[in-house]
Amino acid sequence: MKKIIFAAFVAVWVLSGCGVSVHVEDDSKNQTTLFLVDEEGFSYGDIPYKCDSMSKWSKTASNGAFTFFPPDNCQFDFRGLDGNYDNDPESDEIIRITDDLDKGVEGISYECTSSGTGKTLDDGSFYYDMDDECLFYL
User: Fold this and answer.
1) What's the pTM?
2) Residues near 127 by Cβ (< 8 Å), separated by ≥ 6?
3) Which terminal residue of the chain has fewer beta carbons within 10 Å of its beta carbon, N or C?
C-alpha cells in the first residue's frame, strides 16, 4: 500500500512539472519589420543582413523587408552598391529605411565600416560608401 501511495505521489509530482511554472513569452509581439527602398520607393531586395537575434545571415525580401526584434543591432552588407555621399538622386545610390506606410524612419543610429557614424535623416536615408557594411542600432 505504501508503494502505491508513494508511486502515485511521484507520478503527480512529475506530471505537475515538479512545482515549477514555466512562462513563455510570445516573441512575435516584439517582432518589427522595416523596409529598404530607394528614393522613388522601389525596394532593395536580396541585401544581406544579420541581426543580434539571428543565428545566420539572411537577405531582405523582394519588397525590401527585413525583420528584427528590438533592441537588435542589424548589420547590412551593401557590397555592389555605389554609396550615398551627398543624398543626391542624380549621383548617389540612396537607400531609405521606411515603415510599412513608406514613411522614412528618422534618427536610427548607425556605424558604417568606411563612412563612419551618423543617424538616419528625416526620410530614412543615410550616408554610406561604395561597398560599405553598416551596423544599425535598432
Assistant:
1) 0.78
2) 84, 85, 87, 112, 115, 118
3) N
CA 104 to chain centre: 16
Which residue's C-alpha cell is 543580434? 52
DSSP-assigned beta bridge partners for residue 104: 98
116 DSSP β-pair partners: 112
Compute the distance between CA of residue 6 and CA of residue 46 in angstroms, rounded to an integer.
61
pLDDT (tens, 9 = 90+) of the chain, 138 residues, equals 555 554 555 555 555 555 444 444 555 678 999 999 998 999 999 999 999 999 999 999 999 999 999 999 999 999 999 999 988 888 899 999 999 999 999 999 999 999 899 999 999 999 999 999 999 999
